[in-house]
Fold this protein.
Amino acid sequence: CLGTDWIFVIIIIYVIFNLISYLTSSPVAEYEVGQGTIATNHIYHGLILRDETVVYAGQSGYINYYLKNGAKASVNDVVYSIDTSGELSRQISDVASNGDTLDTETLNEVSSELDVFRNSYDSNTFSSVYTFKNELNAQLTQTLSMNALSSLNEDVKAAVENNTFYKKKSEKPGIIVYYTDGYESVTTDNFTSGQFNMADYKRNSLDDQEQVTANTPAYKRIDSEKWNILLPVSEDMAKQLKDNKDDFTLTVPYSLTKKDGSYYVNLSLKTAMIRYVNDRFIDVELVVSEKTGLKIPNSAITKKQFYTVPKEYFTQGVDSSVPGLMIENHAGDTGSVTLVQPTIYYETDDFYYIDDETVSAGDVVVKNNSSGTYTIGSDVDKLTGVYNINKGYAVFKQIDILAQNNKYTIVDTGTSYGVALYDHIALDGSKIKENQLVVK
């Protein structure tokens, strides 16, 4: 009866101890492990190269343009005119300033463009309003100029016969652009590293000039939809791209170039060039690799030190298949051993990783059916992992990191002794200890 009373007292003390520990413990923020992906991205400042031809004015005089910047021109489309006297050019400008000459088709087109811009407008990019305004103004001005040219047909005919007025047509199909910047003849073969420096970059606007001199640029024509983006990259990135090229599925084909000791990625494109006709430089994000697995916050990751014990010193218990260690008893019990079954947190080909829950540094392990011994603490190592709190107390779980950014880590799935999908882990691994009771 006395023995039963003592057992009851011990149970009460144990319950009270755990209750106090629970009530005095700080709440632990938790995180549910989910599936996720991290892409390894790199942003580079690229140089755009195109097949560009600068077209020079044949005569000196007053200039009027009839195609908007970025418009596609067919052969014999009138791009601009030169008036050596200036009188007809002034008349064209005066007539073009009258918006009443816009036809219904043009007005409907403008209305449609306004609707598209309004529906896609983002207040975070307010500068797009000015870009749209300038593009719309250019479109209307050159449409009105073309209308003016048609309405002054008799005056134009007379000026042409008098060799004072010249209508300049596109000799080849292409995209019309009204600026030069000195990069027109740069190719993927003759570029230099200095040409990537935006501080030295200058561009010359052409469509705001009223007069031109013979043999000076009138406009620029882009003769092909094919274009290239050159990206200066590090030697390590160049090696990564070279070694793993066949493993990537890229939306853009690329090649690697080495010039003057530096590496460059050459992206070859066949579409979307018209969207960037006004750009010489562009920021490009390369998605070099993408890893999928279990996604956990970096704050949950911690390290824990373990004893590493050779597998050859482990044995199976009589009534269990769980690996155990035969620990030599202290002096006084010479020749006797105690079988312990430590929790295994990780294993390699040769070692099991265990903690100090059932063994201590200095304990001597006896090898089964042998005189060999091993001293606990002879070998130690640290594992990277998180604390699993599914059962209300903390249990360390090793992780195998696949990818990482500044907030999250992707770890391998299905690893032995690791975390699993939907496990609950401590959000801050630095504040948790093994077997700590967890208040959620």
